[in-house]
């Protein structure tokens, strides 16, 4: 059996990155606590046979900043994590997401597809709005971190306050020392 092709990300110099500060809304803190925007790396992994869940997992493991923990779609209920930042690498399909909460006038609703990467700071509400065909992501978190589930409900205030103490990435999760997450 042939060895699968190694996944090589798009050169940083050619990468298009969207930065989205999203204001707090209701009980969802979004980017307000750490003042780090949501980052979307458009086409971070080029379309091709190596852009698969296993290829992405191998790349993330080799960089060593985040550990891949699951491969799935995104929940259709708005949720956020209060214990860690999250990196979502699209391994298949396309989808329209909601970042920031459905009723938030400052929300962002990007369409993402295979090869895109989202860097979600802790506290950013996110959910799937529309699966546009076989949508799947590799979910990963900084090495040694565990994720939780919060929904912007009463009683989560203590968890939200802890977000301010979460350290940012030690290096860019896709590119290592010199990547967009380090330019914040």
From TrEMBL:
InterPro entries associated with the record: RmlC-like_jellyroll, RmlC_Cupin_sf, UCP019307_cupin, YjiB-like
The protein's name: Uncharacterized protein
Superkingdom: Eukaryota
Gene3D superfamilies named in the record: Jelly Rolls
């Amino acid at each position: 059996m042939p060895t699968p092709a190694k996944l090589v990300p798009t050169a940083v110099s050619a990468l298009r990155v969207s930065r989205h500060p999203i204001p707090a809304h209701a009980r969802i803190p979004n980017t307000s606590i750490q003042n780090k925007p949501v980052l979307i790396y458009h086409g971070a992994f080029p379309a091709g046979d190596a852009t698969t869940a296993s290829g992405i997992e191998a790349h993330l493991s080799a960089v060593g900043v985040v550990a891949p923990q699951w491969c799935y779609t995104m929940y259709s209920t708005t949720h956020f994590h209060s214990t860690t930042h999250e990196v979502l690498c699209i391994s298949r399909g396309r989808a329209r997401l909601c970042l920031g909460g459905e009723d938030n006038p400052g929300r962002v609703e990007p369409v993402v597809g295979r090869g895109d990467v989202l860097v979600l700071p802790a506290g950013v509400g996110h959910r799937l709005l529309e699966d546009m065909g076989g949508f799947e992501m590799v979910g990963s978190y900084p090495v040694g971190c565990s994720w939780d589930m919060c929904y912007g409900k009463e009683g989560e205030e203590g968890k939200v306050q802890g977000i301010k103490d979460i350290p940012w990435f030690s290096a860019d999760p896709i590119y290592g020392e010199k990547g967009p997450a380090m330019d914040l």
